[in-house]
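#struct-queue
[09:14] JT: dropping the first one here, sequence first, then the structure tokens:
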Amino acid sequence: MPTWFCHRNVFERVEMGFHEGGAGVPEDLIFFYKHLNLGGMLQRVDNSLMVYRYNPNATTFSIKEETIWETRLNQFQQDIMSLPAWSRFSIYGAGKLGRRFFRSLRADVQNQVQQFCDIDPKKVQQKRYEPYPKPKKFKIPICSTL
């Protein structure tokens, strides 16, 4: 499982350090994004530096998938979408996850989506994705009361 570590100076540079919001808060992800926002660098280390011990009561299991999704999405919309190169972009994956990603975006960011890309022939054959259902048009007959 990938993990990361940092020097104490990096930790002290990030304002408020870890967000100690208690159970259900992905404080390591929030810290990681703050580090990147400050121009922090990353470096890959291929050696095993730590061995995790499974604990079914670990706080990590209290973090909901939706919370992580929203944290990632907010980071993307605030920091990536503000870059000029991202005035238009494509979403790779026209399946459930790609469509969910699109629907989760703010309306202004949705307008920047140029296309979906996929390799699945069934998805490509659909030609387009219509994220919102068309309004139903009812055909109600008019009868004479005479």
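[09:21] JT: and here's the second one, same format:
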Amino acid sequence: MNAREQHRATSDGRTAEAPFPRSAVPFDADLLDELMQRAGIDILVMSSKHNIQYLLGGYRFFFFDHFDAIGVSRYLPLLVYPKGHPERSTYIGNPMESYEKELNRFWVPRVEAAASGTTDAMRLAVDHLRRIGGEQRRIGIERAFLPADAEALLRSELPRAEIVEALVTLERLRARKTPLELKLLREASDRVVDAMLAVMAGHGSGTSKRELVEALRREEVQRGLSFEYCLITAGTNCNRAPSDQLWLEGDILSLDSGGNYKGYIGDLCRMAILGDPDAELNDLLAEIDEIQQAARKPIRQGAKGAERSSLPPKQC
């Protein structure tokens, strides 16, 4: 029996949960509690994949990584977190996530892998909210990531609860990146750039934009990334969609792509030219570089955004 499962006897013979080890929580629970306090939120019901992944320490169910629709509904993971009480949290997922539960992938004490659709998931969440006394609490949700039928069920089942938006609270929680997150972002970015350079070096005049995008997709996948998108231009045409337009001698090529690595996207742009750039292009690139370097100078730990926006127009 682990610390999450231990109980102690109370004076009247009932059992109570043992103190939950905060070291088991893979995020800054104290910060989240403080942010919830500021926002007046008692309980969070999270439904976005990125926030659930963050609060579960990187967990993301592989089966629904790219496509959520299933049967006549869709996959809807939910994470219920009561302020100050991580030991009362619960994760609600698809029945197939019982495999992940067997592998001890979750820190939360309660995992219910029993929801086949949106309303199934919310009913389980409502049951848990009632268990922890949430009927008259302020419940924070992510409206942009919560299906209408699930939100409607939450409101109808808990009519005395106040349902509020939790977007700002969760954005502030994730605003300051951890060393691990910075490492993942750098790794994703380096792999995207490496894939772009391989495509640029391996293709020449007469290659279509569509072929270049497909080549970039393959290169990113070979480097362990999930290809998300590529915005591409060639020559003087500013249309950024893949097409049959050809990359020809003397044309500038721009690849702007995002590759997903363990839930973190490296989003970068690189440019190339078939042939040698002329003097005018070199001058323009030098001026762009000067402006970008000037814009970066105010960036430092503790700097305010206002310092960046106060640069002279030519420098920003």
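[09:30] RK: nice, looked through the second one.
[09:31] RK: Residues 1-16 have pLDDT under 50 and may be disordered.
[09:31] JT: good to know. The radius of gyration is 25 Å.
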